[in-house]
Amino acid sequence: MIVLLLFIVQRSLKSYTRHGESVDVPDLRGKSLDEVKKMLGSKDLELQVMDSVYDMSKPPLSIVDQNPKANSKVKEGRTIYVTINATIAPTVEIPDLVGRSSLKYAKMQLESYGLKVGEPIYKDDPHLNAVIGMQINGRNVSAKTKVPGGTVIDLIVGNGLGSSKIAVPYLIGMRYEDAEFKLKGNSLNIGAIVTEAGITDTAGAIIYKQVPEYRPGKSIRMGEPVDLFLAKELPAGITVDTSLYNKVDTIAVP
User: Are residues 130 and 172 in the same domain?
Assistant: First the structure.
């Protein structure tokens, strides 16, 4: 009797739990809700919408994600949870990026807010790739403006060249580290560095040539580079006029 009762219980449990019976979960991503309901109904699976997101590249009310994943094996009657693509884009605030962000960081910030980034618009500014403005369809926008998610934001960034001009400084005879400090103080950049053979201490090397060269009244735009030629010692035949180191030239007006 005990053996018979155990046998009956075991068979009953197998029948109740549908032991050994399973179905493959279909791939629902990209399909509409109506399609999904029919697909799951034919496999005796239930459907429940758990969340929604917005992606303008996908059809409204299409499936974006699912759990369990496609091709998983589950028992009949199991509930499949899905995330659908919303019909209306959520509204988000544009983050404050102007004057405090680089182009790379601004892109990451905008994308984290669910916004898209257009091609950068370069304008004269001595700070290379610094965000100096934002636009939507050619119109300027400011931080905290509310826009639909997925809106394309065009970033206005500096090209590293200011619109203002500055006199070319005199650098001949200076050590490299002093010239570097002077160029940065004048909002200019270091361009190519050409060194003679055997130089191991660039900071202490002497500048014997610069491009563009110094001439009274000669100017370049802020942010432009100056190429430097370095030697261990000043070559013969090159004279240095130290009185020009601190001279402030008047910029010639074309």
Answer: no
Residue 103 amino acid letter: L
Query: Does residue 206 contact residue 240 with C-beta atoms inside 8 Å?
Result: no
Question: Of all residues in the chain, what percent are helix, strand and coil, respectively (each to 5)?
Answer: 20, 30, 50
How many domains, the chain? 3
Check which CATH number belongs to the domain holding 61 and give it.
3.30.10.20
Domain that holds residue 188: 165-235
Kindly indicate the confidence band of residue 254, based on its pLDDT and cuts at 50, 70 and 90: very low
Cβ–Cβ under 8 Å, residues 173 and 206? yes
pLDDT tens profile 58-99:
898 999 999 999 998 999 889 999 999 988 878 899 999 998
Alpha-carbon torsion 86, 88, 89, 92, what sign? negative
Residue type, 77: G
- What is the three-class DSSP state of 14? helix
Total-model pTM: 0.50
C-alpha gyration radius of the chain: 34
| Residue 152 in domain | yes
Domain boundary among 108, 128, 158: 158
- In this structure, is residue 211 part of a structural domain? yes
How many CB atoms sit inside 10 A of residue 167's CB? 19
